[in-house]
Amino acid sequence: xxxxxxxxxxxxxxxxxxxxxxxxxxxxxxxxxxxxxxxxxxxxxxxxxxxxxxxxxxxxxx
Length: 62
Prior knowledge:
This protein has 62 residues and is mainly α. Helix content is 42%, strand content 0%. The chain has 2 helices and no strands. The chain is globular and about 35 Å long.
């Protein structure tokens, strides 16, 4: 997992683009990622980059 703070949004865009290029160059069918519900900055970036919200619900346990 990779975590970026909202102050690192520019770096986040470059990282996202690098991952997107990788999956396209290597014929992956899709890329999936998660963000916190209150991370509006990240959600804006993902939508700007063409990401679409999924219907999946994420669970965790410790």
